[in-house]
Design goal:
The protein has a single domain, classed as Cupredoxins -  blue copper proteins (Immunoglobulin-like, Sandwich). Strand 1 and strand 2 form a beta hairpin. The protein is an alpha+beta fold. Helix content is about 15%, strand content about 40%. The longest helix is centred in the first third of the chain and has 14 residues.
Length: about 150
């Protein structure tokens, strides 16, 4: 159990690395997160396996969400969505009740086999954004979808 928790926390820390400058992201994200109605938050489960994302990838602008990213596959997978992450107000990412990270923004999140990571955010800017896995040939094998914010 300890090895799994340590691995998940390591994956969470890796996912927090941001490649773009903070200026590219929602500037007033803290205000948006603070004003959000977290009691009315909608939970969305996305299951990742070889080689797909299974779950609802449509969100409503201005609404609070928790995405449960569950890796039900045999390989590690990324939830890479840099353009989407630039358009949301991130509250935190959490590994069950064992660890959480508060970060201004993300570019990608890695979830190990059997693992789960929860991302709390407010959908902010409308649009369509690609999400894909950057592990080996996973994207070429079809592990790519579109996230829609209406």
């Amino acid at each position: 159990m300890k090895k799994m928790v340590t691995g998940l926390v390591g994956a969470l820390a890796l996912g927090a690395v941001a490649a773009a400058s903070a200026a590219d992201y929602v500037e007033n994200y803290q205000e948006i997160v603070k004003q959000a109605d977290w009691k009315a938050m909608e939970t969305v489960t996305i299951q990742m396996d070889e080689f797909s994302y299974d779950g609802k990838l449509t969100f409503e602008s201005g609404k609070a969400y928790k995405i449960e990213l569950k890796n039900v596959g045999e390989k590690k997978h990324y939830f890479t969505a840099p353009e989407f992450f630039k358009k949301i107000a991130t509250r935190k990412a959490q590994v069950n009740d064992q660890a959480e990270i508060k970060a201004d923004y993300f570019t990608a999140i890695e979830v190990l086999p059997g693992g789960q990571l929860d991302l709390y955010f407010v959908a902010h800017e409308k649009g369509e954004f690609p999400v894909y896995c950057t592990i080996d040939d996973h994207r070429d094998e079809g592990m790519e979808e579109i996230i829609t914010v209406k």
